[in-house]
Amino acid sequence: MDVQHEQLAHYFLQGDDQGAIEFIKTMLEKYPRAYLYGDIITPAMYYVGELWERNEISVADEHLATAICDFVLSKLDAESGHVSRKQQKNFKAMLFGVEEEQHYIGLKMVADTFKEHGWRVRYLGPALPMEHSFTQIEKYRPDVIGISAALPYRLKTIKMVLEHFAELDWNPLIMIGGRLAKEYNLKEFESDQVMVVKDLGDLKRWFNEGREETINETS
């Protein structure tokens, strides 16, 4: 694997937000945003996690890296050339981490990807209590509900929310993502209404194949 992600991880761990931004802007001159997210930023954060698991960095170091990554993603989003409000499609997405799930960096990149394709997006962040997610979904009535989890003991929560979502009268597409989707076999959850998104490449292929256009046919 290319060492670019390790270079970026170094900026994150040093708390060097300006260095990270400059590095990423240099990468954007060479690569599309999808590549940056899927092949540089995501591996950088996985690398940080691996260092923590090997006790080579502290919890504080990991939190600092996450905070810097969050800041950089927010700045990229603010400076990006997303479509104007008048050009936005009618499709709506709502994205959040399931109850007690604290990981959210991947969700922010997913939110940006939807915006890049002209979707209206509500990003509700990590660890959203179940009852509040249900309330927001009923109000917003999104075409896609994206839920994220990193750890296997979130499976019980995922099953519970999927059971509730199955009862929604407009049949939104449910996307399950996060590290859990990448590292575990979630085939049992897949259906016409539920899609497992292992990484940003899966999401990009979904858009490239024009599958978003089939949503209105099933909702």
TrEMBL record:
- Positions the record marks as coiled coil are none
- List the Pfam families hit by this protein, alphabetically: B12-binding, B12-binding_2
Give the PANTHER family listed for this entry. Answer: METHIONINE SYNTHASE (PTHR45833:SF1)
Single GO MF annotation? methionine synthase activity
- Record's InterPro entries? Cbl-bd_cap, Cobalamin-bd, Cobalamin-bd_sf, Met_Synthase/Corrinoid, Meth_synthase_dom
Task: Give GO BP annotations, semicolon-separated.
Answer: homocysteine metabolic process; tetrahydrofolate metabolic process
Q: What keywords are annotated for this sequence in UniProt?
A: Cobalt, Metal-binding
Q: Which GO terms describe its cellular component?
A: cytosol
Task: Tell me the protein's name.
Answer: Cobalamin-binding domain protein
Organism field:
Halobacillus trueperi
Q: Does the keyword Protein biosynthesis apply?
A: no
What region holds the B12-binding domain? 90-219
